[in-house]
Write a structure and sequence with these properties.
Length: 82
């Protein structure tokens, strides 16, 4: 499933450069994750890098965008066609 950044975000800018799919952007109040681009780093890393660098743990699974590993890999392939 895609991830989301909660309202607890302090806009520290740690997650933005970590996303290999450029799914993270500045929102009106907090950073936001585009569910169409988020693969939870499937295809790149073992675990989501944005979650690993977040100092306040405000990134969590998005219940509105449930996807399994196969779907995330398909999304990764579609986003990274060479």
């Amino acid at each position: 499933m895609a991830l989301l950044i909660t309202n607890e975000c302090i806009n520290c800018d740690m997650c933005l450069p970590e996303c290999p799919n450029t799914a993270i952007s500045e929102g009106k109040k907090v950073y936001e994750i585009d569910p169409e681009r988020c693969t939870e780093c499937v295809g790149f890393y073992e675990a989501p890098t944005c979650m690993a660098v977040c100092p306040i743990n405000c990134i969590e699974p998005d219940p509105a965008h449930i996807e399994d590993q196969t779907e995330l890999m398909q999304k990764f392939k579609a986003l990274n066609i060479v």
